[in-house]
Amino acid sequence: MERLLILEDGSVYRGTAFGSDNFQIGELVFNTSMTGYQEILTDNSYCGQIVMMTYPLIGNYGINRDDNESMIPCVFGFVVKDYCEYPSNFRCSETLDDFLKRENIPGIYDIDTREITMKIRNVGTMKAVMANVDADVDVVVAGLKAADFLHDQVARVSTNKVFPIPNRGKKVVLMDFGAKLGIVRELSKRGCDLVIVPYDTPASTILSYRPDGVMLSNGPGDPTDVKVAIETIKELIPQTVVFGICLGHQLISLACGAKTYKLKFGHRGANHPVVNLSTGKVEITSQNHGFAVDIDSLKDTRLEMTHQALNDKSCEGVRHKDYPCFAVQYHPEASAGPEDSRYLFDQFIELMEENKNA
């Protein structure tokens, strides 16, 4: 069955339908990863977005039970060039099409993803929606132009109640802005006694758990929309160890007086080079973000930049000059992607130990 992908600039791409027919307007973005589509589809940072893979062949190893990054995927659509109907992998438990149908995610394939990627690189991300072939394109485009981007993505994907993941190590409160399970795995692997809390949990409640440190997770959307969390982080930074990842990095920066801005087409993939400014070492990183911290705005704060992207020189990490607080824009837990940066979780453990003994 044929299906359309319609962009807000009026472009129409005709392809083949797979997945569900739950059409939703979303921000069309591209990801350059060659593998890891299951982790991408279940990454809550994609809430409100339609994801297009630049690597052409997708679905060839199917879907397995172990590699999800969330329990309930919230991506608005999936776009690929070639879909493999018959996957071959010893861990495969279902096809990608079966997964998309079960999770109510629409998909389209047999379209020129290279052309669309080049368009996005030239003009920036734009709103898009899938539609049936008999849709009135003019009406759909008018609806796309009139639609506003979501501003409640974090509220959609965050847990709505506190829950523990017990262990015997450092007590860590994880503020859930759409946390990938890879973050939970890395902290649990290091013996951390976790308490997962909603994004709008007050600082007083978080500190009542007497944590050794607080982890600020990744998440979707514009960081300036999460004002309640910014105020909470302002209170937390002087009182405990804080480590932020992706959205957590942006929120720490905003809490300390820096500014953020929207990137033209974002960083999404598993092959982004980042230099550690302290060591000069280059790490290949997994990334998924559409906003970045304004480097110039750091001058008026107590933050200093620790990591920088080699592709566009944007800020990829910060550290507080007075308090045990640091953050990175990329994903040290990878899932999927390179493991060059997992040492940052060890630094978090070491910083909690140093702070405890200070």
UniProtKB/TrEMBL annotation:
Known pathway: Pyrimidine metabolism; UMP biosynthesis via de novo pathway; (S)-dihydroorotate from bicarbonate: step 1/3; Amino-acid biosynthesis; L-arginine biosynthesis; carbamoyl phosphate from bicarbonate: step 1/1
Enzyme nomenclature, EC number: 6.3.5.5
Catalysis performed (reactions): L-glutamine + H2O = L-glutamate + NH4(+); hydrogencarbonate + L-glutamine + 2 ATP + H2O = carbamoyl phosphate + L-glutamate + 2 ADP + phosphate + 2 H(+)
Binding of L-glutamine, residues: 45, 219, 221, 247, 250, 288, 290-291
Family: Belongs to the CarA family.
Assembly and interaction partners: Composed of two chains; the small (or glutamine) chain promotes the hydrolysis of glutamine to ammonia, which is used by the large (or ammonia) chain to synthesize carbamoyl phosphate. Tetramer of heterodimers (alpha,beta)4.
Chain's role: Small subunit of the glutamine-dependent carbamoyl phosphate synthetase (CPSase). CPSase catalyzes the formation of carbamoyl phosphate from the ammonia moiety of glutamine, carbonate, and phosphate donated by ATP, constituting the first step of 2 biosynthetic pathways, one leading to arginine and/or urea and the other to pyrimidine nucleotides. The small subunit (glutamine amidotransferase) binds and cleaves glutamine to supply the large subunit with the substrate ammonia.
Protein's UniProt name: Carbamoyl phosphate synthase small chain
